[in-house]
Fold this sequence. Notes:
mainly alpha, 2 helices
Amino acid sequence: xxxxxxxxxxxxxxxxxxxxxxxxxxxxxxxxxxxxxxxxxxxxxxxxxxxxxxxxxxxxxxxxxxxxxxxxxxxxxxxxxxxxxxxxxxxxxxxxxxxxx
Length: 101
């Protein structure tokens, strides 16, 4: 009878270990999926970082051009009227874009 009880306990332990093993396999699979996702996101973040650096460089260049234009415009009345006309044109285009949505 003790041997039967021992056998039953061993079968229960085997069943519990099987369930535990399946759980470990699922966790391993999920860990692999997370690793793959993290690698993909790292590539995306690296690409985004490069795009941000390019945009920052373009903004610095544009800022220096705008400063040069502002310096030039402050000394020329014709340039000031040209800038006002360009800004009004941009305002009109933006207004049309907003109202068309």
